[in-house]
């Protein structure tokens, strides 16, 4: 495996993962996706980390799948090796919040990976797209499913069928990204947001993430029922007692994440 195919570091309670295949525009191959998945699971298991940032380079987040590795792939090989499912979706097993900090191009699998994160903070030079149709294939890592949920069927259909890219301003207007920041402040803004989340009680953060995600997997009544049970469960944590006591005492809470 290429050395330093990903770069990891920790700042306070924030784990930062940077994809690092600049010569290949961070195109996804097995080595990168295996390394990324391992890093995500390690940070998810680390009690000292409360939030994770996933990012790429200043000019490209990720340009999608490595076409050199796909050009000769057959149908039987894709099925037999469980392509995409095998190692692209490890991020969906992470229970802690994952923020995508996107600068430059997030295309194909890069756009799909960003959408698998819990939310996206985009640099003002970010560009999103699903150009697979130009290669006579379709998005295969959730692009046809997550994009319509994020930006509407009509807009997603146009992008998937034409391969048109969406700039950062349109992505924010459409609801694909949480907010847009100047490119030179992307890391600073993402870290500030992740640090704020990391300072919260981890059990409540994990429960909140799970509850919001449930909104896309169930009816409203089922989702509200799930939320209510999770809300009730929070009263069994030490942090709930500390948080409310601190509020009443007008002091900063000291969460122990239990």
Describe this structure in words.
- By secondary structure, the protein is of the alpha/beta class.
- It is built from eleven helices and ten strands.
- It has helices spanning 30-45, 67-70, 75-80, 109-116, 143-151, 153-162, 168-174, 186-198, 202-214, 220-233, 238-249; strands at residues 6-11, 14-19, 51-55, 60-62, 98-102, 105-107, 119-123, 127-129, 166-167, 179-181.
- The relative contact order is 0.11.
- The mean pLDDT is 95.
Summarize the structure.
With 258 residues, the protein is of the alpha/beta class. 43% of the residues lie in helices and 16% in strands.
Task: Provide keyphrases for this structure.
16% strand, six-stranded mixed β-sheet, four-stranded mixed β-sheet, 10 strands, globular, alpha/beta, 258 residues
User: Structural class of the helices, strands and pairings?
Assistant: alpha/beta
Query: How many β strands by DSSP?
Result: 10
End-to-end span in angstroms? 38 Å
Biggest sheet descriptor: 6 strands, mixed
Cα radius of gyration in angstroms = 19 Å
The share of residues in helices is 40-55%
Question: Mean pLDDT, rounded to whole units?
Answer: 95
The low-confidence runs, each spanning 5 or more residues with pLDDT under 50, are none
Order of helices and strands: EEHEEHHEEHEEHHEHEHHHH
Taken from the alpha-carbon principal axes, the silhouette is globular
Q: Record the strand order, biggest sheet.
A: 1-2-3-5-7-10
Percent of residues in beta strands: 15-25%
- Continuous helix count: 11
